[in-house]
Sequence to fold (110 residues):
Amino acid sequence: MTTRSMLQIMLELAATVRVPASDIGEGRAAAGLTVPAAGEAPEAAPVAISSGDKKPEDAFVAVQYGGRWFWIPDTDIRSKYTFSFVMLMFSISETGIKSSAPVVTVPASP
Fold:
């Protein structure tokens, strides 16, 4: 059995985001989820992120970034479960112990 780091999980989920075409054209983001070819069944993304210029009315979670709003609709139960699971994993992985910086001793000679 192979385990994955939180970074690997985030990268896997990021590959399923539909990036706005304007952001790809301007070089702000790389293309995420690709549209399937004709005749292929679309693969259901674990998290569907919506985007727009206006603040969403009914969102489970929303954030404004770069002048655009990104959100998970409150009606998308699969995305809500997946997002909540990732947030739970982040909270479980948080140890609460902050490591201190290493102490460097420089010998002084008279």
Notes: The helical segments are 6-14, 21-25, 77-93. Residues 6-93 form one domain.
